[in-house]
């Protein structure tokens, strides 16, 4: 099955960075759409940000396209960093890998708790930078 991945995020580090790192590290082909903040703000004003394209009206967003022989192309959109990471973790894992979903419930919820705390801390740290200019990340070399 052919899989197309399209990640949309701002052109700086933030909640999209862990997703980008996982995609680059996996070596799977994907497209990266860097949406400038100015463009995002304009889209908000013109109501171009719709729930079918951007669930929760937020970034990052991962569009997943599967080529299904019987039914033609199928696409779905995922939002929220932890949700996207969970999806990629399971779909990109090598055969024989113990997946999080196979672990006992208590272990899974503890893992989720740590993930959420790490994401919260990352947002707090980025917010403490004090800079009004957000650093540009630059395009990843493996996403060409």
UniProtKB/TrEMBL annotation:
- Boundaries of every GST N-terminal domain copy: 3-96
Q: Which InterPro entries did the record assign?
A: Glutathione_S-Trfase_N, Thioredoxin-like_sf
Q: Which domain of life is it from?
A: Eukaryota
In Swiss-Prot or TrEMBL terms, this protein is called: GST N-terminal domain-containing protein
What organism is listed for this UniProt entry?
Answer: Pisolithus tinctorius Marx 270
């Amino acid at each position: 099955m052919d899989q197309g991945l399209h990640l949309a995020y701002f052109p700086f580090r933030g909640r999209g960075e862990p997703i980008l790192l996982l995609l680059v590290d996996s070596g799977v082909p994907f497209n990266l759409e860097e949406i400038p903040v100015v463009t995002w703000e304009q889209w908000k004003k013109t109501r171009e940000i719709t729930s079918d394209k951007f669930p929760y009206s937020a970034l990052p967003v991962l569009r997943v396209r599967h080529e299904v022989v019987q039914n033609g192309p199928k696409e779905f959109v995922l939002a929220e960093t932890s949700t996207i990471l969970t999806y990629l973790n399971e779909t990109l894992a090598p055969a024989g890998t113990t997946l999080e979903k196979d672990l006992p419930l208590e272990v899974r919820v503890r893992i989720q708790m740590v993930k959420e705390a790490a994401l919260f801390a990352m947002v707090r740290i980025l917010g403490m930078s004090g800079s009004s200019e957000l650093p540009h990340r630059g395009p990843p070399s493996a996403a060409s």
